[in-house]
Amino acid sequence: MRKILNILLITVLVLSCKGPKSGPLVKETFDNNAQNNEVAAKAHQSQSVVAKADIRLEPCADCITIGRLLADKKSFSGKTIKVKGVVTKVNEEIMDRNWIHVQDGTEAEGNYDLTVTSDQKVTVGETVTFEGKIALDKDFGYGYFYNVLMEEGKIIR
Questions:
Q1: What's the CATH superfamily of 66-155?
Q2: Alpha-carbon distance 120 to 98, whole Å?
């Protein structure tokens, strides 16, 4: 008789369970994760602005200046171009790539910074020439949005 009662009790408990995503902690945990994601996105947006550096570079013969790229971005969309600039910020190993900010002293409508994704490593202050494909309006979520992005940048020596 005791075995039967235990089986009935276990059956009632199992049938009353609403699944792994039920219970009072689930909504609270979900809400906390959503708030943390919003905070992270706002923090990124406030940090994503790289200060304008005092740079004066002569572009290489077959390079596009950052100012020209930003002013006429649609004409470069999907094309592989070269850009010469000084590295002003590096975020390594995010989404299996390095995120490199470069400036060359030119600008368009107050924009002066180009982000390049690459598997190569660079250091802040280094002058580099990158060749890569231009992508427009890339949204990675959580506030990581790029109007202009050079993808798969390779350093040209």
A1: Nucleic acid-binding proteins (2.40.50.140)
A2: 7
